[in-house]
Amino acid sequence: MLEIYNETIRDLLTINRPGSTEARTKQYVIKHDANGNTHVSDLTVVDVRSSREVSFLLNRAAQSRSVGMTQMNEQSSRSHFVFTMRITGVNESTEQQVHGVLNLIDLAGSERLSKSGSTGDRLKETQAINKSLSSLSDVIFALAKKEEHVPFRNSKLTYLLQPCLGGDSKTLMVVNVSPAPSSINESLCSLRFAARVNACEIGTPRRQTSVKQLDARFSHG
Questions:
Q1: pLDDT digit string (tens) for 90-115?
Q2: What span, in angstroms and rounded, lies between the C-alpha atoms of 118 and 105?
Q3: Whole-model pTM above 0.85?
Q4: Residues 6+ apart with CB under 8 A from 77
Q5: CA dist 61 to 40, 65, 116, 161, Å?
Q6: Are the CB atoms for 103 and 39 separated by under 8 Å?
Q7: Which residues contact 200 (CB under 8 A, 6 or more apart)?
């Protein structure tokens, strides 16, 4: 579980505070391998065996996430949150293994500076949030137009989510809008963006399967 704060990756499950010496020495480099798998170096990885364990970790991560107060929101998320779960299942009758990766992403909302009143650190956060969301828009539109070059590397967010936005992945986006009349301009922008995303085809999902070796043992290591 990580957050992208001002284009910097932070581990939300580490016991070290973000500003500590040990936390600053972590590199958190995004790496894509030849099989389309994505890993972030130095991130804390936890084995889980139940939904209760997942809920516990989500609550723990939420407490570490960067939040701040603006004129629009007393508890405003100042980062993008990414939760990655790698799942392996075995069909005992056929010895077939199924591998999958589930990414749950909570994007920080776009902000209009004229309404949020952000200054200082809040201003820098707003600029980073809006820039990364703009990069996500550029990627989505490039995919929709089937352009040869897709600008995944323009932000940490889009580079991290590259496997989710192409190949054999399947992506669902939920857009939240405000019912307040004062937010109508931002809500309309969000709905227009959602309509364009809905029209984008990124590929056909494919199951990742393999046959387990007879002498193999299922390990949680």
A1: 888 888 888 888 999 999 877 666 56
A2: 24
A3: no
A4: 65, 66, 67, 106, 108, 109
A5: 17, 6, 25, 19
A6: no
A7: 140, 141, 143, 144
